[in-house]
Every structure is written in C-alpha cells, then in structure tokens.
Amino acid sequence: MKRKLLDILACPICKNYPLELIVFEEKEEIEEGLLICNKCNRWYPIMESIPHMLPDDLRDKEEDLSFLRKWKEKIPENILREGKPFNLS
Fold it and tell me: How far apart are CA 18 and CA 79, in angstroms?
C-alpha cells in the first residue's frame, strides 16, 4: 500500500477519518501493516501491500486471527483484546 492512500481511506463501517497506521514491513510500499479506526475500534490488516477493508460479515475469521497472532508483538493491546470484529480474547 502506498502511504499516500492513507489520505483517502476511512473506516467502511463508521466512516471515521483518518485511520491510524502501524507498519510492520515496508519496502517501496507498505507490505504488511495495520489500519485502526480509533472511533469504533475496528482494525484492518494490510497483507501483501493490499489493505483488507471489508465489512465484518465478509471477513475471514481464521485469516484475521492468524494475522493477529503473527504480529501480536507489534499490535496495540487494546486491538488484541477488544478489536472488532475479531480479537485474541
């Protein structure tokens, strides 16, 4: 994902803008990272340079939980415990 995309992204659920960005891996683009909506506590993974910003009912629970486990050392505690739609609690 290119950093300038952050200027136009909003939470698809509550429409909050701007989203918080946490970068895990970056080369020419953000390869792996996390977008967080601080209003509704939803999080959206960035995987293979693509932000996955789907509504809750279209998200893959196992894929999302796997992402959280993989990066749990770099993800804020509130997302790990209370993030929507899935968390590690």
Answer: 17
The tens digit of pLDDT for each residue in 12-59 reads: 999 999 999 999 999 999 999 999 999 999 999 999 999 999 999 999
Q: Is residue 61 part of a domain?
A: yes
Residue 57 domain boundaries: 3-82
- Cross-strand partners of 35: 21, 44
Residue 89 inside a domain? The answer is no
Number of structural domains (the chain) is 1
Under a CB-based contact definition with an 8 Å cutoff, are residues 88 and 65 in contact?
yes
* pTM of the full structure: 0.95
